[in-house]
């Protein structure tokens, strides 16, 4: 069957060589050298040679030791009287190649346990998933679904803070990668905690996960409890002087948080593959939010990559994941030190280490203090929004409670 698809594709190509320009095919996917060399010969002339004699001449020029004859080309062409299935055959050849590479790599990993192979395995798995999906033919359909969409009283937006939802055109949407950037000590983690709690409070049936890569689950829970109980975070960390009433509030808050559809993954989940696996286990289309704190701490299996290459891989794979599962992922990021030195309002150019943060994200937001003298005043600047508006939203940040609240309430 392997060579059969290769034979059928090559025969289809001989019937209509020009289609080589419209089909995604890589000769390296072929097992049979003879079919591979015919395809390369046709590719080399961009499918312009329609006579089998001309194609044969090109084959002999490129591969002097190829023994194929004109009669064999005629027989091959006649074995597949139509060219209409060439695209289907190309996809099957591609799938076969990917499956073989996956088997080779997994066998190698089983024998060597070389973790550098895991990234290649993950890439081929993604490639096979993409090939297995039925592609749209571009024709416009779905009128009935559109009417239902117009009638719907509910949507799949994840709501958090009202002014933020309004600016984003309804909230965070499925298939969106959101980058939130700030300098250290501005409140990225606290903002993430508030987004997580707001998402659970305002969206029925949602599952929310937070990956805290620089602290333990226990340390993160202290911050969640501080926010929900409105008890000073420092006192929760060191409760020696905490009075009984506040201890009761903290205990009640802890119990309520533990009963939410919330999971906190800590430093054990710095590997990108582990994060993706955890997300896939919990993701529900339009009803899932993952928050990763923060991108600079995520690692990949290929240790040879520099920080820029690592971040590029992280954003690319997470963006693909949001599209595949139709979920929202919020990725926290550090801003360049220049924003701290100059005190300027952050821009997209200040995203640290990689342009992929801007390129792959649907939404980019920054947290910054417009006035260092007023530590509670924080502005959330929406610097990029593919489906909403850009602008700034003033927030009040009370650090002792890890609490963010918008200064302006809409509606």
UniProtKB/TrEMBL annotation:
* Coiled-coil ranges per UniProt: 114-141
> PROSITE patterns, from UniProt?
SF4_HELICASE (PS51199)
Source organism's superkingdom? Bacteria
| Residue ranges of domain SF4 helicase in the record | 150-411
Q: GO MF annotations for this entry?
A: helicase activity
For this UniProt record, give its keywords in alphabetical order, as a comma-separated list.
Answer: ATP-binding, Coiled coil, Helicase, Hydrolase, Nucleotide-binding
Instruction: Reply yes or no: does the keyword Hydrolase apply.
Output: yes
| Record carries keyword Iron | no
Q: What is this protein called?
A: Replicative DNA helicase
List the source organism.
Answer: Enterococcus mundtii
